[in-house]
Amino acid sequence: MSNATTVNREYKDRLFSFMFGNPENREWTLSLYNAVNGSDYKDADAIQIKTISEVLYLGMHNDVSFQIFDILNLYEQQSSYNPNMPLRQMQYSGNVYERYITEHKLNKYGKTLLKLPVPKLITFYNGTDEEPDERILQLRDSFPEGSKSDIEVTVRMININYGKNTKLLNACRPLMEYSWFVAEIRKNQETSDIEHAVNKAINNIPDDFQIRPFLLAHRSEVQGMLLTEYNEVEAMELFKEDGRAEERVNTEIQKKRADAAEKRADAAEKRADDAEKRAGDAEKRAGDAEKRAGDAENKIAILEAQIRSLK
Fold it and tell me: What are the extents of the domains in the chain?
């Protein structure tokens, strides 16, 4: 078994979550919150980490969830554009609220109106496809056009690629350094495999970066997470390519079926034309025969008249 495979099985977390959803780094989480919301809170102890664990919710976990005062924040990092984030984050929100109700021993079946923290749903995009600095994703776009839904979910998607959203990145230095680190890995991948690209990026982290001591202290975890992330992205791309290939095959099959159906339709139309022509010919022959019969009857009538006149 390769070392990369072993690492992938050990580390299931994402680097973004490891950095900004880690209780050890509440200051970074607070800095990220302030940058996203234009606030200036100082007390990092106000951050309560609420991230969904796959251990508690089998098959479902999110990157970073935390509460600060009466605001419940669900943050996701995506290396590819996903228009279904409103649906996913709605599901994550339900699990987070369920846990909130349990922890606070609230009765959702009672007559008293429950007071809940306000949800804020953010997706941080750092994929390679060109995307605007920010866009709004809405659940309503998943429903049939013109329909009116009783549920609406809005997700703010923020592009955190290095060089994008400079005001936001400058407002949160750990996020800016994270973006630089991801960009450095991609640059290194142009000349080396992912494992060497990650190692080189770690070694090249500037000395004054806040994230440097943390990443160096957790070097093996960081390597494992990034190998897992990039393998997942590669697998997703292969899956997409398989889907595109299958679509091309299906399109070709459909084209052949359409061509065959068109040929059958042309043949049927030709047979119909031939039948119509034969019917026209038959009708013409019948008309000619009827005319000859009429002429013969006229001749007979004339002859009979002549015979009578001779008598």
Answer: 3-224
